[in-house]
Specification:
Elements lengths: L3 E5 L11 E8 L8 H8 L2 H11 L11 E7 L2 E9 L13 H18 L2 E4 L11 H11 L7 E5 L3
Parallel strand pairs: 1-6, 2-4, 2-5, 5-6
Antiparallel strand pairs: 3-4
C-alpha cells in the first residue's frame, strides 16, 4: 500500500520517472473550458479533442458518469478524462460533483495505470468547479489506487 504524495506544482508537468497518467474530472455535458482543463489544453490539444469527440459520439460509446477515456500525449505521458460531475452548475441537485462516478472512473484509472505500469498524477480532483470535498475524494483515491500499490501524486498549484 502506498501513500498519496502531496506536492506544490503543476499537475500538467508531472514529477518522477516512468510512465505517468494525469487524471482529472470532466462534466457529462461535453463542456471543456474552465478550470484544470485549460492548463491541459495549453499543453496538449489531444485530450480536449478526444473528449469532445467522445461526447459528440456518445450514442455509440461509453460516455457518461463514471466513464474514463485515456489519451496518450507524449511517449511516457497519458491523460485520463474522467466523467465525474453532472452538469456544470450548482442547482436543486446540489453541487455538480458525483462521488460514485469518480469512484467508478478511478477503478478504470487503476486498471489502466497497472496495465501501463504508470504512476497517477492529479490536481485535487472533484474539488474545484465541481464543488466536492477532499475529505470525500481522498478515501476513493486510497481505495482504488494506493491500496493497489499505485503511486499517486496530488498537485496543489501555487507557491
Amino acid at each position: 500500500m502506498s501513500e498519496i504524495r502531496f506536492v506544490r506544482g503543476d499537475a500538467t508537468a508531472p514529477q518522477g520517472k516512468g510512465v505517468k497518467l494525469i487524471v482529472h474530472v470532466c462534466n457529462d455535458l461535453g463542456g471543456w473550458g474552465k478550470g484544470f482543463v485549460l492548463a491541459l489544453s495549453r499543453r496538449w490539444p489531444e485530450p480536449e479533442r478526444a473528449y469532445r469527440r467522445w461526447h459528440r459520439e456518445r450514442a455509440g460509446n461509453d460516455f457518461g458518469l463514471g466513464a474514463a477515456q485515456f489519451v496518450q500525449v507524449e511517449p511516457y505521458v497519458w491523460v485520463g478524462n474522467m466523467v465525474g460531475q453532472r452538469g456544470i452548475r450548482t442547482g436543486s441537485q446540489g453541487v455538480p460533483v458525483r462521488y460514485e462516478a469518480i469512484d467508478k472512473a478511478l477503478a478504470r484509472v487503476a486498471d489502466k495505470a497497472l496495465e501501463l505500469g504508470a504512476s497517477v498524477h492529479m490536481p485535487r480532483i472533484g474539488c474545484g468547479l465541481s464543488g466536492g470535498k477532499w475529505s470525500r475524494v481522498e478515501p476513493l483515491i486510497a481505495d482504488r489506487l494506493t491500496d493497489r500499490g499505485i503511486e499517486v501524486t496530488v498537485y496543489d498549484h501555487g507557491d
